[in-house]
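Re: that backbone. Tokens:
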């Protein structure tokens, strides 16, 4: 059973290794193979981001349902946390995969920028997994705060990079990529707001486990989830818009 739960995450983690291995055997007369492979990885990240996110939403309705037993509601909350890891993993890898994809598409990056792009994904992924595995500990609390600061850094730095690209004309032939980057920054912002809105929900589940249900607690849980859903829906819209831009590619020269 544990292997089944770990399967999707292991698949995502092994994909970068598959891309690297393929790059070692591809021949010079197949210039498009690596691009298609990275593009496939990019699409897989989108699927594993949005799909489990919808699952989190569905289980949240059970976690706040007062008609269910406390045990069922707590189980729903635990499932939300488990499947909620996958969207976080996909978010952490998306900029690196997207950056590599744009390089393969013909948008050249300085060497130092490509180094930063390659290091970003593994660092963010490691931080995400450490936050998940250390939850409930003092170390986990420090890591969670670091994760929040890092996401705010992404919220600020990604739009600044877009402004730089717009002023220098680096992406003049690919204006839709700039829009996708802004949408990514928006999704990261929405994730921060969701985390803030869900703080009472997480505390409420702990209280539910310790003290049992009450009308006041039910109201706290429902209100917390209701607020968080606004940002969840906004992130879904932003992801859908980004996917559409990737397909249509408006303004491409």
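Recovered sequence:
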């Amino acid at each position: 059973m544990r292997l089944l739960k770990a399967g999707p995450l292991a698949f995502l983690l092994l994909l970068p290794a598959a891309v690297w291995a393929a790059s070692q055997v591809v021949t010079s007369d197949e210039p498009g193979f690596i691009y298609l492979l990275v593009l496939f990885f990019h699409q897989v990240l989108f699927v594993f981001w949005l799909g489990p996110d919808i699952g989190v939403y569905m289980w949240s309705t059970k976690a706040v349902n007062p008609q269910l037993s406390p045990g069922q509601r707590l189980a729903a909350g635990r499932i939300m946390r488990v499947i909620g890891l996958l969207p976080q993993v996909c978010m952490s890898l998306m900029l690196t995969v997207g950056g590599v994809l744009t390089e393969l598409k013909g948008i050249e990056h300085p060497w130092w920028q490509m180094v930063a792009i390659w290091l970003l994904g593994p660092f963010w992924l490691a931080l995400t997994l450490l936050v998940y595995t250390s939850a409930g500990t003092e170390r986990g609390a420090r890591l969670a705060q670091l994760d929040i600061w890092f996401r705010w850094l992404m919220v600020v730095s990604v739009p600044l990079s877009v402004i730089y690209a717009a002023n220098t004309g680096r992406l003049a032939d690919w204006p839709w990529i700039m829009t996708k980057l802004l949408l990514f920054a928006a999704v990261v912002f929405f994730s921060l707001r969701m985390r803030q809105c869900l703080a009472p929900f997480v505390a409420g589940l702990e209280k539910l486990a310790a003290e049992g249900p009450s009308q006041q607690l039910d109201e706290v849980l429902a209100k917390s989830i209701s607020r968080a859903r606004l940002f969840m829906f906004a992130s879904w819209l932003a992801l859908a818009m980004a996917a559409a831009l990737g397909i249509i590619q408006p303004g491409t020269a």
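Residues 2-248 form one domain. Residues 1-5, 22-31 have pLDDT under 50 and may be disordered.
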